[in-house]
Amino acid sequence: MKPKLTIVKIGGNVIDDPEMLQTVLKEFGQLDGAKLLVHGGGKIASDISKRLKIPTQMVDGRRVTDATTLEVVTMVYGGLVNKNIIALLQSLGTDAIGLTGADANTITAHKRAVKEVDYGFVGDIDVANINTKKLSFLINGGLVPVFCALTHDKQGQLLNTNADTMASSLAIALSGEYDTELIYCFEKNGVLLDVEDDNSLIRELTYLHFQQLKDDGVIHQGMIPKLDNAFLAKRHNVGVTVKHALNLTSPIGTSLL
Ligand SMILES: Nc1ncnc2c1ncn2[C@@H]1O[C@H](COP(=O)(O)OP(=O)(O)O)[C@@H](O)[C@H]1O
Ligand SMILES: CC(=O)N[C@@H](CCC(=O)OP(=O)(O)O)C(=O)O
Questions:
Q1: CB-side exposure of 137: number of CA atoms within 13 Å?
Q2: Which of 17, 130, 182, 252 counts the most CB atoms within 10 A of its CB?
Q3: Cα(181)–Cα(161) distance, rounded to whole angstroms?
Q4: Is the separation of the CB atoms in 130 and 170 below 8 Å?
Q5: How much distance in Å is there from the Cα of 93 to the middle of ligand 1?
Q6: Is the ipTM of this complex over 0.85?
């Protein structure tokens, strides 16, 4: 039997809320078995860009990342956000180690080809090349890997990579060695029929139902790429749930079928 691995992804709104962040990290640290955290921070990168008077451009939920924006996201994701999360986890007794994909060459990616949009320094992950041996080595050494949304191309170039995609790619790659569960945590109860009503939770979601809800406009914005990533992991036998960051260990949330 494969050992259990839980991969948790937390988004920018969770990181931006100190109480929510503290709660989810505490519950994360108490999860049984091997665990790995992936964090975003898009909201914080946009806030800091604004303070620096650097314009932010998003296309289909992805940040257009020119050289200046790459400097910002490297500082924000790899520095500010990742190191604060590591310090918090350490304060809670979890021996976490902060990583970009460049660290220990864990995740390589290739710069996204220019089609209708030039996304700049945005990386698409080479899932088959994810260094699962290095990650198992860290996990077996008692460390909890914490990834920010940065990868590299092994030619010296860092690349900005969506955190939801990082989480699903890691879950898919590690599902060969682990019985893997992926939990997307954000600031709502899960996938909702009405975004404004946390009681309109969809408890179980099939791919067909997702397509219908997308066509009807019930699922929109960042939830579309999140669920595309989530269903991709599901097709690789990863158990996937989408839930509120305050409900990490509670059954309330959306399970993908
Ligand atoms: N049907 C839906 N149920 C829940 N959230 C939805 C739905 N449709 C759109 N959303 C939006 O998707 C957002 C989550 O996507 P995103 O911002 O990418 O997440 P994260 O902060 O985890 O990166 C929610 O804040 C919400 O505004
Ligand atoms: C290429 C791309 O779009 N990268 C994302 C990475 C951060 C992220 O995904 O943050 P959340 O999970 O908080 O949205 C961005 O820069 O916004």
A1: 6
A2: 182
A3: 21
A4: yes
A5: 31
A6: yes
| Domains delineated in the chain | 4-256 (3.40.1160.10)
Token pair of 124 as six digits: 């698409």
The pLDDT value given to residue 60: 86
Using CA atoms, how far apart are residues 98 and 154, in angstroms rounded to an integer?
Answer: 19
Alpha carbons 110 and 6: distance in angstroms, whole number: 27
- Angstrom distance (rounded) from CA 168 to CA 148: 13
Token pair 């975003």 in the structure block, residue: 40
> Model pTM?
0.98
| Alpha carbon distance 88, 98 (integer Å) | 12
Q: Which atom of ligand 2 is nearest to the CA of 163?
A: 9
CA nearest neighbour of 166 among 143, 182, 177: 182
Closest listed residue to residue 13, CA positions, set 37, 43, 38, 39: 43
**What does the pLDDT look like over 195-237, one tens digit per residue?**
999 999 999 999 999 999 999 999 998 899 999 999 999 999 9
Give the separation between CA 94 and CA 180, rounded to whole angstroms.
20
